[in-house]
Amino acid sequence: MQLTDIHCHRTRNDGHISIEDKGDAEPQDNRLFSTGIHPWYINDEWQIQFARIREYAQRKNAVAIGECGFDLLKSPATVELQHTIFAAHIALSEETKKPLIIHLVKGTDELFRALKEHRHSQPWIIHGFRGKETQAQQLIAAGLYLSFGEKFNKSAAACTPLHRLFVESDESQVPLRNIYHNIAAAKDISTEELAKAVKENCKTSGLIP
Predict the structure, then answer these.
(1) Cβ neighbours of residue 195 under 8 Å, at least 6 residues apart?
(2) Up-side HSE of residue 159: CA atoms within 13 Å toward CB?
(3) What's the mean pLDDT in 69-82?
(4) For the chain, which residues make up each domain, given as ranges?
(5) Does an H or E element contain 181, and which?
(6) Which residue among 8, 90, 153, 180 is least enclosed by CB atoms within 10 Å?
């Protein structure tokens, strides 16, 4: 059974479909990838970084913009600069018609502010979601998608509709099949049913052909 991993930081050779987060590094092959400025790595030269990202985002195998977003714990940037850079990623997502992969740590209020300030037609996907059920419901009600990885809140996964759910490995060394199995168990469905739903979500959102 072929699985889909929408966000990983290492090259996978296990036969599954994976989207590698390249940050602002230039991709060297034809693998599917996303490109963006992680909130941890914002610096004074972010506009130069973003010029490269804009170039990479035009490639056919660039399927998503990000990860980008808000981190009020580890980002060296001010909240206002994080908003400025996030807005640039939103615009690029809309321009290229590619989904936005969002890093969100202690920044839910900032994300909702961005939702009010910027219209968007492309999917916004919160990657590596570990929040509780209440937060999951708020984000889903706002039209966002949630991606779950190795560590997740079971009740949050259980309440997330299949058509709003993705699966990822991020930086985990745990086999992707195990991650799928645990999320499927939390939703009381089979791994096969979860895999089918995630692949369909990836197709409808444009993450995979």
Answers:
(1) 1, 2, 3, 4, 180
(2) 17
(3) 98
(4) 4-205
(5) helix 176-187
(6) 153
